[in-house]
Amino acid sequence: SNNNIANINDKLLEGLEKLEILELQHNNLARLWKRANPSGPVDFLKGLSHLHILNLESNGFDEIPAEVFKGLSELKSIDLGLNNLNIFPLSVFDDQASLKSLNLQKNLITSVEKDVFGPAFRNLSNLDMSFNPFDCTCESIAWFVNWINSTHTNISDLSSHYLCNTPPQYHGFPVMLFDISACKDSAPFELFFIINTSILLIFIFTVLLIHFEGWRISFYWNVSVHRVLGFK
């Protein structure tokens, strides 16, 4: 840690399958996880199947590859605090059912959804996602609010360090107090809207099809009917 490391070869840690603790905090490793790299993100954690503690705090990461923790099923602690992470791929924590501690404080996280964080939160003892700019809308944090209000996981300073950033009417409002009852009530209306929109689109498509291709449809229909009835 604290070495200003900016580059790691994807084979540098090869052969260290028994490594249990890796601390690379306060370096400059952000470039390694960039999708824009000529060969894609550098998977420098590959093969560390017995890793228990991983500290990558304060490295400037603003992207995280979907497969970065794949195979690291023994991880007990992940620290990605003080980075610039915003969007997490759906499968990024799929192998982290054994995780006990997760630190994501002071990133740029706006949304906490079950499909992304559910596997990581399953057996957590400690969570730190403080000082993130949460988007207090049903789509972004309804599941998270329900989880933090029912979990036994230790989450420090919930009322003061987990605040809404957007939308404007909720700015500075505690995330834990966001009213999710409105989210549940809106579900039937959303389904109704989707069904009605689909019917309308099908109707418009049918009208346009008949308008522009009606003669062709009529012709082939008559041909088919005549063939069925035995006419030439």
TrEMBL record:
<keyword id="KW-0391">Immunity</keyword>
<dbReference type="InterPro" id="IPR001611">
    <property type="entry name" value="Leu-rich_rpt"/>
</dbReference>
<dbReference type="InterPro" id="IPR041015">
    <property type="entry name" value="TLR3_TMD"/>
</dbReference>
<dbReference type="Pfam" id="PF13855">
    <property type="entry name" value="LRR_8"/>
</dbReference>
<keyword id="KW-0472">Membrane</keyword>
<keyword id="KW-0395">Inflammatory response</keyword>
<protein>
    <submittedName>
        <fullName>Toll-like receptor 3</fullName>
    </submittedName>
</protein>
<keyword id="KW-0399">Innate immunity</keyword>
<keyword id="KW-0325">Glycoprotein</keyword>
<keyword id="KW-0732">Signal</keyword>
<keyword id="KW-0677">Repeat</keyword>
<dbReference type="GO" id="GO:0006954">
    <property type="term" value="P:inflammatory response"/>
</dbReference>
<keyword id="KW-1133">Transmembrane helix</keyword>
<dbReference type="GO" id="GO:0016020">
    <property type="term" value="C:membrane"/>
</dbReference>
<feature type="transmembrane region" description="Helical">
    <location>
        <begin position="191"/>
        <end position="212"/>
    </location>
</feature>
<dbReference type="InterPro" id="IPR032675">
    <property type="entry name" value="LRR_dom_sf"/>
</dbReference>
<dbReference type="InterPro" id="IPR003591">
    <property type="entry name" value="Leu-rich_rpt_typical-subtyp"/>
</dbReference>
<keyword id="KW-0812">Transmembrane</keyword>
<comment type="similarity">
    <text>Belongs to the Toll-like receptor family.</text>
</comment>
<keyword id="KW-0675">Receptor</keyword>
<dbReference type="Pfam" id="PF17968">
    <property type="entry name" value="Tlr3_TMD"/>
</dbReference>
<dbReference type="InterPro" id="IPR000483">
    <property type="entry name" value="Cys-rich_flank_reg_C"/>
</dbReference>
<feature type="domain" description="LRRCT">
    <location>
        <begin position="132"/>
        <end position="184"/>
    </location>
</feature>
<dbReference type="GO" id="GO:0045087">
    <property type="term" value="P:innate immune response"/>
</dbReference>
<keyword id="KW-0433">Leucine-rich repeat</keyword>
